## 1
Amino acid sequence: MVLAARTRSRRRSWLLGPAVALMCLVAGLAAGAGTALGAQFERGDVFLAASGGVQEYTPAGTLVQTIPGSGGATSMCFDPSGAHLILPGVGLFNDNGGALPSNWASATPGRCVADGSGNVYVVTRDASFVWTIAKYDLKGNLLQAFHPAPFAGEGPFAIDLAPDNCTAYYGNSNSSPVGGTGFVGIGRFNVCTGAQAPFFGASNFVNDLRVLPDRQVLTTDDPNANLFDASGGFVRSYYPGGGPFTNSDTLQTLSLAPDEKSFWVCCAAIPNSSQPKQVFHFDTDSGDLLASWIPGDATAADGPMSTYTPPALGDANVERHVDAARAGTAEAFRTKAAFTGQLSRLHLWVDSSSTARTITVGIYAERHGLPAQLKGEGTITAVQAGSWNFVDVSSVPVTAGEHWWLAVLSPRGGTAVSFRDGRRCGLSVQSSGSHLADLPDHWTSARLSLSGPLSAYGS
């Protein structure tokens, strides 16, 4: 009976595969694309805003291109999929630098962050110190405006989203409140409910910040970059020259690298302010300086930065369809590697309705259109529902264009795990075993379905 079931599943995969590809192709054509003006953005490249436009650099500091029509950018961010570069006050661009129709040119410029549901948040402050977090759609249409608790400091301003895609962290860059009033440091505001959240424990001023997947927070505070734990406790500082700076015009903006275990920061003059400013790459845990280089355009050292960090494979968007797998039964979803590299971390969006306290995620190689051998797995033991969760896995090499399967399991004895997936552009298979405590080393399939992609990805 098992052999017969597997034979039928393989036959169905040959039939369903072309149908899924056709539906996804039609959806992609319907979405439209900008004019292909430059090279496809490469994962890990660093983007800096210069006077002539946004410049793309390799991690080694080689200039790849300057994006036409991007001049005047004072902030930038990518959506989690990497399909769009968003420049508030300037425009919207696709992943090879082509301009897309949008209303972003009319938006108020400010630091921005995009969630996985098609929303973009821009933080600004006017001359009266009225703070606004404006919520836009991806095309730059204003949806809602929030007014979080104010700071009395000065810009530039910082914003990032926690893994729940709701809690916005925001901050200013003045250590002395104007007029002796106002909070100095990092505020938090729930952009899903419109409620003010408790201020973050870090009390120093910030030029920029990033919330890590484990909810630690990286900041730049001129002159240093700093790491704070999830409660706001100070962990360490990062010094490009081996110690604190003495010149005032130093580290301003930062961005995470694709591995999420290192970050880029811009820009400081070493050893003194008369030297050209450099971009630096740090290991987050050790504080080691991994690389540094001087931008080709000196004006880029004074503007915003971002790193191109789409998933190596999988879907970093929060899909709308809530799905579930009962405890003991695994489900795997097909995906294709978009980039070549080494995976060391798997992420899963756990829906707010999920009650599973332990979740195992894994990645399977494909054979005959179905998952085959388990290549990496890990167990999330401190599950947070309504949020992205992650687990580190042994390094898995992937090559762009290869098909893989991301699997989810709530081990037997637990409760069902709820997650998100799409309903038109993917394939999924349930395991033949229904009392699994662990993901099997070699997958045996039961039911094949048209569903996906799973809101899960590898980095």
## 2
Amino acid sequence: MKKIILIFIVMCVLLTLCSCKSNTTNSERSEREEVSSTTVSEQTYDDFNYKVENNGIIITRFLNDSENVIIPSEINNKSVKSMGKDSFYQRTEMKSIFIPDSVVSIEENAFYRCYSLEKMEISKYVQQIGSNPFFRCTALTQITVDPENQNFSEKDGVLFNKDKTTLLVYPEGKADDVYYIPVSVKTIAADAFGYSCNFTLLYIGENVDEFPDHNIIVNNPETTLVVKAGSTAEQYAKEYQIKYNFN
């Protein structure tokens, strides 16, 4: 009888230990999930909403209407790495913005409808730029790129990839009536000419053989493409019913 009682006591002790271990594991799991949730949730610092991903800061929204904006290089001892999609959407009063060297990414439509933004400087550290982040920035006249940047370049204020084979962004506020696409260009990126540009003549060389799958002249019906006869540009103009002449 004593032996049976002893076995019963031992079993009770073992069950209690297992329960404690299970509770501890569940508690730890809950704590990890809470930390993970906090890591990806949106937070606020001064005039910025942001989130933390891969131990870096992504600016998700600017909350003010300042004319001159300075992005911090760090928030809570973490580097600001990215200007997120739509992060400065319709900040219509913003004329200038300082982007620190910590930023390596400018995402699609980051500055969409920033109508007063006049210039943009791309540092040598920027590695990735999404599809025209300056769409409908109608006052933007110039984009400059640090010559040491390994991914991007500019010519006459227009943004290209490093070897100028892809035209990425033509500033919508650039005042020229005529634009000659450099002979090195083979590809015109989607939304490269934004919503409306001021030129009425766009010269496209026969080396350009890759176009977006839509009309690159979104809101300027007066623009005429000047192309080579028999070129891909001529076929493109015909397909999207864009006015064109031969060079």
## 3
Amino acid sequence: MAEKRIVSLVKELKSRTNKKQFVLEDFCFPAQVAFIKDPARYKTAVCGRRSGKSTACAADLVDMAITTPKSSQLYITLTRGNAKRLVWKEVVGICQAHDIDVKSNISDLSMLFSNGSMLYFSGAATRDEIEKYRGFSFNKVYLDEVQSFRPYIKELIDDVLSYAVLDRAGSICLIGTPGPVPAGYFYEASHSEGFKNFKWTIFDNPHIFMKTGMHPEQLLAEERKRRGITETDPSYLREALGMWVNDTDSLVFKYNESNNHYDALPEEDLIYIFGIDIGYNDSDAIAVLGYSKKNKKVYLVEEYVKRKQDITDLVVQIKKMVEKYKPVRIEIDAGALGKKISEEIIRRHNLPVHAAEKHRKLEFIELMNDDLRTGKLMIKKSSLCAEDMALVQWDIIEKDRRTISKSFHSDITDAVLYAWRYANHFFNEIVVEVKFTGQAQVDTFWEKQEVLAEKRKSGAIEWWEE
């Protein structure tokens, strides 16, 4: 019965798409139309993957732009790059297919329609970016991939965007896939009376059948078989069916507030290590870790995250923190030019940095997760790192094969990982009694120590190899 309905929808959509004029009801399928046309000013749509949610955003933006002259609309997702990739291209495609007169400015991701309507596309990767939306007035605002936003989304919506739509009696639409934990702003909004809540999945999308000639259930059955999972797998329920379920196994980092939050640092002196992740479009991040030999724990003491600064700006910040903490080691990842940049920092700025070793990253994440599970790695719940650890997810390729998903990128968790590798908080104090039977043995012993010291100095040996 469901397949017949899809075939019928496909035929109807094919006949409609021959028309040049853009008509929302002709372009979208019923579940999308119901969401778009509902008059509620605050709406959420919780959708599964491949359900056509980004297409719904694009169609709604175009429809309001051409039917409401001089309207102003804003589309926000996590980053500007994602905005361009997800919806900008969809809007451009709709306008080209329907001969809609629009001037596109790709440098600032804006579109001006012939009737004076404006569309803006942007990102909000950090709390600092919230301020750029103050003072604007919008008829409609879309927030896409809402599950990937940090907690500052509440401030963005309640303190900024809600006032930006006020004088036009505009609307705010939140759309996305369920997150790995049924908590946070998107979960609360999708269960709140303050928002009109909608849901649809791949089964409502007739274009899947049009493109593949296969029913969605056939495609999903193949996917389950490939991954070696059943229909009750939490990640399948979330991603495919758009259901809120507890799926902590999909999180890369095993941070738990009850296990890993601390209110105050221990009184004894800590030994400090810096981890630094360099970005430009992404952020520069510095993690200051301090470990204790007494309680065998390591603490995220301070974090610094800032976008779009040059190397000199970063070095100034590093020097301030070096003066404050006197670290025993500084690990820095500068991307593909890591060693070149680290050598330049050493030569020009006299900072003893080491180019971070990124091989076996997944292995070290698992080792660090052991410290999180056992309460040996302590991170304040209010930190950016704790927020990010609740968002970085695994992308399952197939059973027993996985990689870190690109849907959300964290700079500070990488910086923490680089520093954590060199924290010796777990070492027990070992007393070794060395007995020498002659001068030759004494000489051999100290020769070996000198060789080890040289290797440590040059970076040719890691601490776990000694």
